[in-house]
Amino acid sequence: MVGVVAEPAEELRPSGCAHFAPRDADSSRPGLFHHLGLITDERTPKPTFDTYRALIDRHG
């Protein structure tokens, strides 16, 4: 997804890209949709948090 947005960014001039689930809905539950966030429901950063931060640093 990052490549799709970042590669043509200079030409297309997008105003932004957002991750709409920064926090897990319920980290204690086993279902997939409870774990989509960048941080747990207790606000502990997950490995994807650092990846997301690095992508922002790289692509602005």
Architecture blueprint of SSEs:
Elements: H1 2-6, H2 9-12, H3 47-59
Q: In whole angstroms, how far apart are the ends?
A: 15 Å
Radius of gyration: 14 Å
Largest sheet: none
Low-pLDDT segments, ≥5 res:
none
H-E string: HHH
Q: Please bin the fraction of helical residues.
A: 25-40%
Overall 3D form = elongated
Number of H/I helices: 3
Q: Based on helices, strands and strand pairing, what is the structural class?
A: mainly alpha
Task: Kindly report the average pLDDT value.
Answer: 83
Taken as a percent bin, the fraction of beta residues is under 5%
Record field, number of beta strands? 0
Explain this structure to me?
This protein has 60 residues and is mainly α. It has a domain at 21-60. 37% of the residues lie in helices and 0% in strands. The chain has three helices and no strands. The chain has helices at residues 2-6, 9-12, 47-59. 3% of the residues are buried.
State the gist of this model.
By secondary structure, the protein is mainly α.
Keyword list:
60 residues, mainly alpha
